[in-house]
Amino acid sequence: MKELIIQHKELAWAAFVILITLVMIFISNKGFSLIQRKWRKAERFSAVFDSLKTIFRLFFIAMGIGFVSYLFVEESSYAIITNNLGRIIWFGIVLSSMVLLSAFSKNYFNSKIERLSRRDSGDITLYKYVNYLVTAFIYLIGIIFIALAIPALSNLAAAAGASAGAIALVAGVASQEGISNLVGGLFIAFFKPFRIGDIIKIGQTTMGRVEDINLRHTVIKDFQNVRIVIPNAVVNKENISNYYMIETKNCEWIEVDISYSSDINKAIEVLQKTCESHPLCMDMRTDTDKQKGCRKWMYRWLRLAIVRLH
Question: Which end of the chain is flanked by fewer CB atoms within 10 Å, N or C?
Fold first, then answer.
């Protein structure tokens, strides 16, 4: 048996590497599945576990191909293969770290948002925007670390450093709109002219409920159930009417026409009874007004509104 292995050592090495690769894939999948079953909060991270399984599967396959490739090259090329295997390990570490960090960041901000989901308890706008910002930053750092491990990209970065001023100017002009949207989102998140869940009117035409504010745009759902996507830079330039800035109740003017010969007092009485009989009628009097039984202000307001129509 030993002599047979020595005679066919290349085939034996390839079979050994394939076997080890399959075993490692099996162990990693079972390990993640075991963690999912035992960990109480694993349901929140189901997508993360799926991503990690895929990353580890590709990692072990790439490592297996790398080890098998020793059979097909000369010994002078072993150093190149070893360096590439080191890069594969580095890629696996960086990708796994990116997935884990972004998942924990998302879970942290989502837990904050759940606790502040009611408007009276707090505002979720800043947490949602910072969640997008942190996730984008994590992936940006990960891409930079991956690029540093690739010689061609690292040489390109070194060459770019020599002409950093010109590249910064070109990049700034090319990404001016994207940067303005990013900065606009920051202004909205921190200065809070409106919040997620508010009903707002942007400009003269766009009106609806704010659904989301991300790095690029603000999403508004209008009253026709249509989602309107507006760049943050455009939102910051427009006049914004926020119907929830102070409280959720607001006033709308309704014009009621009556003839000159009609009795204004009778019209006021009909309007008053109609409003008070409505099941959704809100009594806006203060406690003092209620104790005094004050209604004269309502008559004066209604009389003024009706007289002005003539």
Answer: N
In angstroms, the CA 25 to CA 23 distance is: 5
Backbone angles phi, psi at 107, to 5 degrees: -65, -40
Q: Write out pLDDT tens, residues 120-159.
A: 455 677 777 888 888 888 888 888 888 877 776 666 555 5
In this predicted model, what pLDDT tens digit does every residue of 263-285 receive, in sequence order? 888 888 888 888 878 887 777 77
β-pair partners for 78: none
Question: Selecting from 2.30.30.60, 3.40.50.12160, 3.20.20.70, 3.30.420.10, what CATH number does the domain 177-242 have?
Answer: 2.30.30.60
- Dump pLDDT digits (tens) for 176-217: 777 788 888 888 888 888 888 888 888 888 889 988 888 888
Q: Is 283:252 a contact under the CB 8 Å cutoff? A: no
CA distances from 220 to 190, 229, 231, 250, 271 (A): 19, 6, 11, 20, 35
How far is it, in rounded angstroms, from Cα 227 to Cα 38?
40
| Interatomic CA distance for residues 245 and 237, integer angstroms | 19
* Nearest alpha carbon to residue 267 among 305, 223, 226, 210: 305
User: What's the CA gap between 202 and 210, in Å, rounded?
Assistant: 11
